[in-house]
């Protein structure tokens, strides 16, 4: 890290000591050009790639999937089956890579841990009163500690959007710091719920706030509101992590989640990552997809490229 970056990081670390300092910094960030962001995202979405590159992109996208089930009807048997699929997405093809992680509710973590133990697949759990974020802090932190103790090595927390939108930035910052501490060695993904933030400026501010407070990833959505991940929102977040690394020397990951269903969609996001943040983020350690149905389409397209025969959705388990 350069001396300049070290100095900048030190200066930024002082922001969390004061509501006024946080507000001044966040509202001093450059405004997002809505038209420009949407046009840029649309333009990047038109890029085409050749067959060989497409095959590589599909395998990379598979490795970036956080295979997710967050339903009230989840059972131990269901999440064990999901974990088995995470390890061997295509049982008929051992060359198919494993996914990035399995993401479940805290109560389901022990059952997933049984299957994933000793593997390279991460175990993620939503916590902090997912999806609303509306609970006392001590309950949120207990949720996190329980998930980590049960075997989760990644925690997906959700910010209190009510506090953020009311301008109580210090409250949101302090909750993220406390959650980061409760995670211990587990990585922390901070869910912004961008569909409720109303503006791209708010997305940029929330992204910086989450990174300043120690988040390892910033994530678009819970998948529980009508508007989830979009290309323009993800563009704003990628610009934020790029600029944050330039200012501090610390790299933070990005996870769009919700509504990404096809291989074509996934490739659009990968192109955007490369063109906006750079090749350093084209790695499961720094970019993930929060999705389940996406994996099946990736597997179908992969089979078509490798065998020349299109396998229908009934060839793969439905999630």
TrEMBL record:
<dbReference type="InterPro" id="IPR002915">
    <property type="entry name" value="DeoC/FbaB/LacD_aldolase"/>
</dbReference>
<dbReference type="GO" id="GO:0004139">
    <property type="term" value="F:deoxyribose-phosphate aldolase activity"/>
</dbReference>
<dbReference type="InterPro" id="IPR013785">
    <property type="entry name" value="Aldolase_TIM"/>
</dbReference>
<protein>
    <recommendedName>
        <fullName>Deoxyribose-phosphate aldolase</fullName>
        <ecNumber>4.1.2.4</ecNumber>
    </recommendedName>
</protein>
<dbReference type="GO" id="GO:0005737">
    <property type="term" value="C:cytoplasm"/>
</dbReference>
<dbReference type="InterPro" id="IPR011343">
    <property type="entry name" value="DeoC"/>
</dbReference>
<dbReference type="GO" id="GO:0016052">
    <property type="term" value="P:carbohydrate catabolic process"/>
</dbReference>
<comment type="similarity">
    <text>Belongs to the DeoC/FbaB aldolase family. DeoC type 2 subfamily.</text>
</comment>
<comment type="pathway">
    <text>Carbohydrate degradation; 2-deoxy-D-ribose 1-phosphate degradation; D-glyceraldehyde 3-phosphate and acetaldehyde from 2-deoxy-alpha-D-ribose 1-phosphate: step 2/2.</text>
</comment>
<keyword id="KW-0456">Lyase</keyword>
<keyword id="KW-0704">Schiff base</keyword>
<dbReference type="GO" id="GO:0009264">
    <property type="term" value="P:deoxyribonucleotide catabolic process"/>
</dbReference>
<dbReference type="Pfam" id="PF01791">
    <property type="entry name" value="DeoC"/>
</dbReference>
